[in-house]
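Quick one before lunch.
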Amino acid sequence: MAMIEIRHVSKWYGEFQVLSDCSTEVNQGDVVVVCGPSGSGKSTLIKCVNGLEPFQQGEVIVDNISVGDPKTRLPALRARIGMVFQNFELFPHMTVLDNLNLAQIKVLGRDLAAAQERSRALLKRVGLEAQAPKHPGQLSGGQQQRVAIARALAMDPIAMLFDEPTSALDPEMINEVLEVMVALANEGMTMMVVTHEMGFARQVADRVIFMDEGRIVEDATRDEFFGSPRSERAQQFLSKILRH
Amino acid sequence: MHYHWNWGIFFEMSPEGTGTYLETFVWGFGWTVATSLSAWIMALVLGCIVGVLRTTSSPWVVRIANGYVELFRNIPLIVQMFLWYFVLPELVPVGIGDWLKQLPDAAFYNAVIALGFFTSARVAEQVRAGIQSIPRGQRAAATALGLTGLQTYRYVLVPMALRIIVPPLTSEFMNVVKNSAVGLTIGLVELTGRARAMQEFSFQVFEAFTAATLAYVLITISIVLLMRWLERRVAIPGFIARAGAAH
Ligand SMILES: Nc1ncnc2c1ncn2[C@@H]1O[C@H](COP(=O)(O)OP(=O)(O)O)[C@@H](O)[C@H]1O
Ligand SMILES: [Mg+2]
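Model of the magnesium ion complex:
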C-alpha cells in the first residue's frame, strides 16, 4: 500500500521551475533514499509531502489524504508526519524534555503525564535519557539530531521525512545518528530520506531516487541503483560521492 | 553669578497648598512612575501583537501593521499628546467629548495612551527584527510538528524573539520614562512639571532640577537592574545565537 504518493508534481518560484513533473511513491514500511546534486530540488520535494512547501501542479497523497487540497487541515496531517532537518531545529529556549512534550500536548492534546512518559521512553531509545533536563545548546550536534528524531517520533508518526540529517554533523557524530535511523528502518517505519550517505542507502533503502534539476531522473530499487544506474548523471554523481 | 543655594526649600510649603515642595516632588515622582509603567505595559502588549503581524505571510496584514508603525513612530510625541488630549474630544460626539474633558486625571490617561501608542510602534519594530533574526528552520520545524501559526508564534518564535531583544527593550523602557516628561505639556503633574513649578514659585532652579535629575537617575538605574535581572532569568543555557544563519 502506498503511504506517500507524489503524482506529477511541478513547482515554480516565480519563473524558476524547482520541480518538474515529479512522480513517485513510498509504500508503507519502505525506506526511500533521495539523492542528487545540491540545488536539484530534494528538500523542496520532501517539503511538499507535509505541505511545508506549496506546489502549483500535481497531487501529493499521504495516507489517502490530499496534501494540496485546500480543504485538508494541514496541521492535523503534519502532526502525523515526522520531519527531521539538517540543522536539527530544536527549540533552543526549551529543555530537551519540553521540546518533546510541546507538540504532544498542544497538538495531540495529551496530558503532561502521558507526554512525559512518551518523551522519556523515546529519549531512552535514542540513548539520551540523562539529557532530558538540559537545553539543546548544551548538547553535541549528534545528540541534538537524535533528540530531534525523538521529538518527531513522540508524535507517533505514520511516516518520517529526513532532510540531510547528517550533513551538518562532524564526521565522528554521523554514525550515532545513522544508527538510530537504521533501527527505525528495521522496525518498519515508512521513511523518505534525503541523504548522501550511500552506506545507509545500501543498508536499509528499498529504493533510491536520483534527482537532477528538479526532475526525478532515476527511481530504482537499491540493487538496480547500485548495480548500474541507468542515467549518466547518476553514474557521475555516484562516482563522485562514493570516492569520498 | 549670585545664586542663593537653599536645600531647605524642600521642606517649605509649596504655594499650591498641597504640602511641602518635597511632597509635591514625591507626587510628581509617583505620576512619572505610574505614567511610564502603564504606557510601557500598553506598549509591550500592542508592540508584540503588531510586531508579530508584520512577520506574517499575509501581505495586507503586513501592510496595515507597517502603516501602524510608521504612523505612531513618525508623528512627534508632543503632537500625538495634543491630538489625543485636545483634538480627539472635539471629533467624537459631543456627549462623549464632554465626558472625556471632565474625566478626573484626564491628563494621565491621555499621556498613557499617547505614550503607549508611540512606544508600541518602537517595540513592534524590535519584535519584528527579533522574529526575523530567528533562523527560518525554526518556523518550519514548529509547523512540521503540527503547530498552528498562532501556536508557532506563542510557543516558539515570540519567546525566542523577546529573549533576543532584551537589550534594545531596556533602552525603550528608559525612553518611556524620559518621554513621560512630555506629559507636562497637557498638564500632567509629573516630575519635570514639579521641578518647573518649584522653579517658578521659589526661583530655586538648581535645587529643583537637581532633585528631578536624581529622581530620573533613580528610575533609570532601577530599570537597568530589573532588565539585567530579567536577562539572567531568561538566559538560555548553552545558547549561542545563530541569528541570521541562512539555510
Ligand atoms: N524560497 C525560494 N525561493 C527561490 N528559490 C528557491 C527557494 N528555495 C529554494 N530555491 C531554489 O530551488 C532549488 C532547489 O532547492 P532545494 O530543494 O533546496 O535543493 P536541494 O535540497 O536539492 O539542495 C535551488 O536552486 C534553490 O536555489
Ligand atoms: Mg536541501
